[in-house]
Design a protein that fits this description.
Elements lengths: L9 H11 L12 H8 L1 H20 L3 H21 L4 H11 L4 H7 L5
Length: 116
């Protein structure tokens, strides 16, 4: 019997599933939306991140809580797709958020090097 997916386990479960869809893991583009995105290359899933971010902004502007949640979930999902592709994980993001905790947002932004 498999374990139930919960709020505490969903990110790890998604990461494992997304990893199994990578081309070198034999993800099948004809059977998986994510494998199809990976097969098309980064432009495909990066475009989806942009689309989902825009849809989240529009949902927020409409002040629609249900749509905000739905679009945020879509954005998180496609971000996880990208993280997995680049051999990163949600844990890397959590570690960065922990690192930033207690640091003023203005200080954190100022500490980043500006692109040339």
């Amino acid at each position: 019997m498999s374990k139930a997916i919960t709020r505490d386990t969903i990110l790890a479960h998604l990461q494992q599933t997304l990893h199994s869809r990578l081309p070198h893991e034999n993800g099948d583009p004809s059977a998986s939306y994510v494998a199809k995105l990976y097969a098309k290359g980064p432009d495909a899933f990066l475009k989806k991140i942009g689309e989902e971010a825009t849809e989240l902004v529009m949902a927020a502007k409409d002040e629609s809580p249900e749509r905000i949640i739905s679009e945020a979930a879509d954005l998180w999902f496609h971000t996880l797709v990208a993280l997995t592709y680049y051999s990163l994980s949600y844990e890397d993001i959590l570690s960065e958020l922990v690192r930033r905790e207690g640091v003023s947002g203005l200080q954190e932004k100022a500490s980043r090097s500006e692109p040339a």
